[in-house]
Amino acid sequence: MKKRLLMFMGIGLLVLGLSACSMGSKHTSTASNLPDSSKYEPTLFFHGWGSSYHAEEQMAQSLVNAGLTKTIVRATVSKHGKVTLSGHFRKGDYHPIVEVGFEGNRNSNPRQWGRWAEATVIKLQQTYHTKRFNMVGHSMGNMAIMYYLLDNSNKLPKLQKQVDVAGHFNGILGMGDEPNQMKLQPNGKPEKMQAAYKALLPLRHTYPKNQIAVLNIYGDKNDGSHSDGSVSNASSKSLRYLVANRAKSYQERKIVGANAQHSKLHDNAQVDKFLIDFLDD
């Protein structure tokens, strides 16, 4: 009986040893073993408040279905800013997707979201020597992008394309904004600015000059509120005043109808088409 027990223990240790070897040898690409690493230009997706990377999946998959890439990597950012990558860039697939997930997704401080975005970019820079990239945000994810740019406009890898979906740059309905109340000047300047918007005003002078192409997508439920149900069109369109005078290009696209509701926009086929055309241009 004792000999049989020892035999089983020996087999168990052998299996554990083989498993450890297998895990240790699992291939993970980095700049050191990925040819032409500087050619890789990832597109980072940022979800909204209280959400997760799942909200990015349809938009990300639409890019795969359109043939823009075959690679989706996930970046999980802890509340303390530690970034963990799942998956890896693939040889020759130069436009991979990075679905970013913030564990502190109920944090309401937009500057903290910007710091988490920065941590993600730095992780990609350290791992793949990333030099150029794109960003796509939905709802609060747009504030992650904007506050990232506010603090890092010329320090880190070059942002080439910025896509903002359902951005609440100057407030949310029921939280300092009401339907049809916000007024914008022709250049997008709001007559009244909320604190978070005022904090972004330095971007009018620091946003990278003639570097970033911007696509601003917003929804109108067509119910008379001129909003997506959560964010007024005026709040979304106030982005123009912050970046248009320095952006390489700036364009707006309005989605109309029931599927233009705020949380449906990241699963909207029309948004997917605008996104594909913009990133593939």
What would you say this structure looks like, in words?
The structure is a single chain. The protein has 281 residues and is of the alpha/beta class. Helices cover 34% and strands 20% of the residues. The chain has one domain: Alpha/Beta hydrolase fold, catalytic domain (Rossmann fold, 3-Layer(aba) Sandwich). The chain is built from nine helices and ten strands. It has an eight-stranded mixed β-sheet with strand order 3-2-4-1-5-6-9-10, sandwiched between helices. A two-stranded parallel sheet has the order 7-8. The longest helix is centred in the first third of the chain and has 23 residues, at 2-24. It starts with a helix and ends with a helix. Keywords: Hydrolase, Signal.
